[in-house]
Amino acid sequence: MKEKIGITTTVPVEVLLAAGKTPVDLNNIFVTSGKAKEIIERAELDGFPRNICAWIKGLYSTAVVYGIDRIIGVTEGDCSNTKSLLEVWQSKGISTVDFGFPGKRTREAVKSELDSFMEKFSVILEEVESVRKSLSSIRSKLSELDRLTWEENKVSGFENHLWQVSSSDFNGDPESFSKELDEFLEEAKCREPYPKNEIRLGYIGVPPIIDDIYSLAESNGARVVYNEVQREFTMAKSEYPDIYEMYLDFNYPYDLDTRLGEIEKQIEERKLDGIIHYTQSFCHRGIEDIVIKSRLKLPVLTIEGDLPGMADARTKLRLESFLDMMMDLKE
Ligand code: SF4
């Protein structure tokens, strides 16, 4: 049986697949486990402080509960808590492999990080490129799914989120993922489009821990037609000559200014009416809200999530009022 390697965010999955490993995104297991709250409680019982982001606690316990022996720790460009999390895992006997998106966003720096990552898994560039090419048709299909969301209006915001966010590990099995995606696309293409007068939203920031954020928007006459970070995970924004250029074009680990440039482009292209900026309680990325609100020229609602599950009454009310206001503006 192939060794399962835990990942905590998007990493060069082509390297793991070339090495014959099965990537497992711990975030996806955690939120779809059906016992996310128990998983968090377990982390707190093991000593995690209350004021640490629920994703971190979820990642920690998921690895322990699901018996993951080795994890890729993204030490640069993802989360400021990762280094400490890796130390806790190591103390529990879980081995970790470091990977970092370089501080300097240059081809040279990305190449150096990727080459060293390949060395750690004893694979060479040709093997990795061959996997990259085999995954390119899946990435193109994800781009088509995204187009069906914003251009043909046949895919819901949640479906768009789920498929794109799952491209971090292709659910551990790219072949099955590809087949299921084919079936989904086939079915989605035959749907009636969503109504033309709906409010078109962009969702930016880390993926939500709240289950019903997309359905709440839809039940109030809106739909998310752009999921920023999830789309970045697909690496499907363009066709790339090699793996270095592909990961160089990945905006999430780098500066906010470049991210906002891409967001502005998508606001224009997808004709967005408003933005939901999702922040996670106790996450350093919440500070970015200040710059986001001062730069974007359309209404932005900041929603903060804490624990997994349904949105609380206050969040529901704020979202409903925001969408009411948007509807008035649109009319
Ligand atoms: S939400 Fe923020 S603090 Fe939590 S894991 Fe993600 S980056 Fe880290």
UniProtKB/TrEMBL annotation:
It comes from the Bacteria. GO terms for molecular function: hydro-lyase activity. InterPro entries: FldB/FldC_alpha/beta. Transmembrane segments: none annotated. Its cofactor is [4Fe-4S] cluster. Signal peptide: none annotated. Belongs to the FldB/FldC dehydratase alpha/beta subunit family. This is 2-hydroxyglutaryl-CoA dehydratase, D-component.
